[in-house]
Input
Amino acid sequence: HVQLVESGGGSVQAGGSLRLSCVASGYTDRRYCMGWFRQASGKERERVAVTSTIGTTTYAPSVKGRFTISRDNAKNTLYLQMNSLKPEDTAVYYCTAGFNWDYWGQGTQVTVS
Output
Protein backbone atom coordinates (compact mmCIF):
# COMPACT_ATOMS: atom_id res chain seq x y z
CA HIS A 1 0.00 0.00 0.00
CA VAL A 2 1.19 3.50 -0.85
CA GLN A 3 0.59 6.61 1.21
CA LEU A 4 0.76 10.04 -0.41
CA VAL A 5 0.95 13.22 1.63
CA GLU A 6 0.71 16.62 -0.04
CA SER A 7 1.91 19.93 1.34
CA GLY A 8 2.58 23.45 0.16
CA GLY A 9 -0.91 24.70 -0.50
CA GLY A 10 -2.14 28.04 0.76
CA SER A 11 -3.53 31.40 -0.23
CA VAL A 12 -1.78 33.65 -2.71
CA GLN A 13 -2.58 36.68 -4.81
CA ALA A 14 -2.98 36.42 -8.55
CA GLY A 15 0.38 36.36 -10.26
CA GLY A 16 2.04 34.69 -7.31
CA SER A 17 3.66 31.28 -6.98
CA LEU A 18 3.33 28.16 -4.88
CA ARG A 19 5.20 24.89 -4.82
CA LEU A 20 3.35 21.73 -3.91
CA SER A 21 5.11 18.64 -2.64
CA CYS A 22 3.91 15.06 -2.37
CA VAL A 23 5.84 12.50 -0.37
CA ALA A 24 5.19 8.85 -1.11
CA SER A 25 5.73 6.13 1.47
CA GLY A 26 4.98 2.47 1.80
CA TYR A 27 5.45 0.17 -1.17
CA THR A 28 6.50 2.60 -3.90
CA ASP A 29 7.27 1.36 -7.35
CA ARG A 30 9.46 3.64 -9.43
CA ARG A 31 7.60 2.45 -12.50
CA TYR A 32 4.52 4.27 -11.26
CA CYS A 33 3.38 7.31 -13.12
CA MET A 34 2.73 10.22 -10.79
CA GLY A 35 0.61 13.25 -11.25
CA TRP A 36 -1.41 16.13 -9.94
CA PHE A 37 -5.14 16.54 -10.30
CA ARG A 38 -7.33 19.31 -8.96
CA GLN A 39 -10.95 19.80 -8.11
CA ALA A 40 -12.60 23.17 -7.82
CA SER A 41 -15.78 23.62 -5.84
CA GLY A 42 -18.74 22.33 -7.82
CA LYS A 43 -16.59 20.99 -10.63
CA GLU A 44 -15.24 17.62 -11.64
CA ARG A 45 -11.72 16.56 -10.83
CA GLU A 46 -9.35 17.37 -13.67
CA ARG A 47 -5.84 16.30 -14.55
CA VAL A 48 -3.28 19.08 -14.17
CA ALA A 49 0.09 17.47 -14.89
CA VAL A 50 1.55 13.99 -15.00
CA THR A 51 5.02 12.54 -15.29
CA SER A 52 6.19 9.10 -16.28
CA THR A 53 9.12 7.16 -14.93
CA ILE A 54 11.24 8.19 -17.89
CA GLY A 55 10.51 11.84 -17.32
CA THR A 56 7.95 12.57 -19.98
CA THR A 57 5.45 15.16 -18.83
CA THR A 58 2.06 16.31 -19.97
CA TYR A 59 0.08 19.33 -18.87
CA ALA A 60 -3.46 20.54 -19.09
CA PRO A 61 -3.68 23.36 -21.65
CA SER A 62 -4.84 25.74 -18.93
CA VAL A 63 -1.59 25.40 -16.97
CA LYS A 64 0.97 24.74 -19.68
CA GLY A 65 3.79 27.26 -19.50
CA ARG A 66 2.92 28.21 -15.93
CA PHE A 67 3.18 24.94 -13.99
CA THR A 68 6.09 22.51 -13.86
CA ILE A 69 5.89 18.96 -12.56
CA SER A 70 8.99 17.15 -11.37
CA ARG A 71 9.86 14.10 -9.32
CA ASP A 72 12.79 13.10 -7.15
CA ASN A 73 12.83 9.31 -7.07
CA ALA A 74 15.56 9.24 -4.45
CA LYS A 75 13.28 11.16 -2.09
CA ASN A 76 10.02 9.56 -3.31
CA THR A 77 8.73 13.07 -3.78
CA LEU A 78 6.66 14.71 -6.48
CA TYR A 79 6.56 18.47 -6.96
CA LEU A 80 4.36 20.97 -8.73
CA GLN A 81 5.80 24.43 -9.20
CA MET A 82 2.96 26.83 -9.94
CA ASN A 83 3.76 30.29 -11.28
CA SER A 84 1.61 33.14 -12.54
CA LEU A 85 -1.32 31.80 -10.57
CA LYS A 86 -4.82 32.84 -11.54
CA PRO A 87 -8.07 32.84 -9.56
CA GLU A 88 -9.28 29.98 -11.74
CA ASP A 89 -6.45 27.84 -10.36
CA THR A 90 -8.25 27.81 -7.01
CA ALA A 91 -8.96 24.19 -6.12
CA VAL A 92 -7.99 21.28 -3.95
CA TYR A 93 -4.90 19.71 -5.49
CA TYR A 94 -4.38 15.97 -5.24
CA CYS A 95 -1.29 13.90 -5.75
CA THR A 96 -1.77 10.51 -7.36
CA ALA A 97 0.40 7.56 -8.29
CA GLY A 98 0.18 4.07 -9.70
CA PHE A 99 -0.30 2.25 -12.96
CA ASN A 100 -3.91 3.41 -13.08
CA TRP A 101 -3.95 6.25 -10.54
CA ASP A 102 -4.45 3.67 -7.82
CA TYR A 103 -3.31 5.85 -4.93
CA TRP A 104 -4.38 9.34 -3.89
CA GLY A 105 -3.37 11.85 -1.28
CA GLN A 106 -5.78 13.75 0.92
CA GLY A 107 -5.42 16.96 -1.06
CA THR A 108 -4.14 20.43 -0.33
CA GLN A 109 -6.11 23.63 -0.82
CA VAL A 110 -4.82 26.32 -3.16
CA THR A 111 -6.66 29.63 -3.13
CA VAL A 112 -5.79 32.43 -5.55
CA SER A 113 -7.42 35.82 -5.06
